[in-house]
Amino acid sequence: MPGAVDDSVRFDLLGPLRACRGSRELDLGPAKQRAVLASLLLSANRPVPPSRIIDAVWGDEPPENGPNVVQKYVAGLRRVLEPERAPRSAGRLLTLTEGGYRLAVAPGATDVDRFASHVRTAGQRRAEGQLAEAATELQAALSLWRAEPLAGLTGSYFEAARARLADDRAAAVEEWAELELEQGHQQSLLPELSRLVAEYPLRERLRGVQMLALYRSGRAAEALAAFREIRALLVTAHGVDPSRHLQDLHQRILQDHPTLSTSTPPAAAPAAPSPSLTAPAAPSPSSTSPAAGPPAPLPTPVPSPAPAGRAREERLRVQDWMLKFVVAAVPILSVGLLAGPAMGVVALRRRSVRLGLAAAAYLAATTTGALMIDTTSDDITSTKDGLGVTLVIATALVCAVHLAVIVPRRTRQPSDDETRRQYGRQLAAEHPLIARQLGIGRPDLPNQFEDGGLIDVNEAPEAVLRTLPGVSAEHATLIAADRAHRGPFRSLEDLSARGLFPWPIPPRVADVLLIIRVEDTVDRDRP
């Protein structure tokens, strides 16, 4: 209706999480409440049990009475998202079902949906030969990215979601670059390609576009240098050579092959980004129109080769022990007088009720002991004085040990296995055939690559599937049977869609699951 006000709620995940009603941004509350909303958005229109929300938001440090804490944050979200809802009445957007909390999100109500919709439309336009229109759709998709997706949210669950979204963006960037090259825009494309290659140094498809653009611009020597650069990076990072396709392109440039002057793209276009993690997308009339020019850069860190972490961990261990010594010395050197205040500072910094109660207990014990000591007399041999001195000293010692145990508490650093899994996944995504040859995700084969315990659910035998956390022998048999009957799994979401795992898949299982897509193995590495 003309003049009607749009009061629907829109959610943006491609940057810091935000929600808007019309043109007004909503105050989503404290950090944990925002994290609860993000976990619901990543499984929108599906019930999410409180236990899954707790795993996603708190990880290895769940709060006491976790379901009650989740309920408190859900109530806060309901007040924000549905302010007109009467108290104790059923919610319309955020409801409680038998399976858990369900956030209803309309198609196109998230920027993730709109991004996927634009990319799908671009694929259709490209297939129809409408290259300019396809490039415009991709520019519209990329313009939705404001910063690193889900910025500020920590934990393995959000890291995994962030990695999937970042990979979708990289694929869209690659396809946009191919479209520009197919339209003969290699001269204007080259400066932007230099920036994109710096942002994604190990993306071979993008390097192929750069090499071909340089060649078609009469800069064959620089095209060959670009190949040598990515080869050196791959050998350093993974100990592997570029894919056979990129090597073939390199050979054709050396031979000045006539096919290189045509508009053939340097690599086969992959499928559109994986389906969004929210409701099925539809083109949104309010989506941002594309700005002219190349996609804007994002401050997304590029994975770098794993550091030699032993020296760093040893240095951190020394620093930790020094800090423990300093904090433990505070109550001892102050003869217990600063035991309570020191613990109180820690309690405030961590917002811990338990530590606050401990601080009050230490303060009360020190005060009681001090009051028991008769300071007007030089003789402290009385029983009362002895008890007072004992109480003060005992309080100081107990508090010192307590502080030494709980301080420091660092943000958990990735373990060696996590780093190996990260690089194993990256290698499998960019070089699926090489990953299969190296036996990544196959602990039953001779060890050729340290993958941190990954398990390729499409290739690993049933006996290996039984080693997955929480997977019984019957469950492993069901997975193997489904794989044989319905074909290989395409994604973790596919595992859930086939009813083999709940969604989201529990982090301890998702951390080790690997899916090397069979079609990628055939297409990406085909010469």
Short description:
With 527 residues, this protein is mainly alpha-helical. It has 21 helices and 7 strands.
Short descriptors:
two-stranded antiparallel sheet, 527 residues, 7 strands, three-stranded antiparallel sheet, disordered C terminus, mainly alpha, globular
Can you offer a commentary on this structure?
With 527 residues, this protein is mostly helical. It is built from 21 helices and 7 strands. The strands form 3 sheets. The chain has a 3-stranded antiparallel sheet, with no helix packed on it. Strands 4-5 form a two-stranded antiparallel sheet. A two-stranded parallel ribbon has the order 6-7. Strand 4 and strand 5 form a beta hairpin. The chain is globular. The protein starts with 8 loop residues before the first strand and ends with a helix. The N terminus and C terminus are likely disordered.
- So how many helices? 21
Please state the average pLDDT score. Answer: 78
Distance between the termini: 56 Å
Strand order of the largest sheet: 1-2-3
Q: What assembly state would you assign to the polypeptide chains in this entry? A: single chain
In the predicted model, the low-confidence regions spanning at least 5 consecutive residues are 1-6, 264-292, 297-310, 520-527
DSSP strand (E) fraction?
under 5%
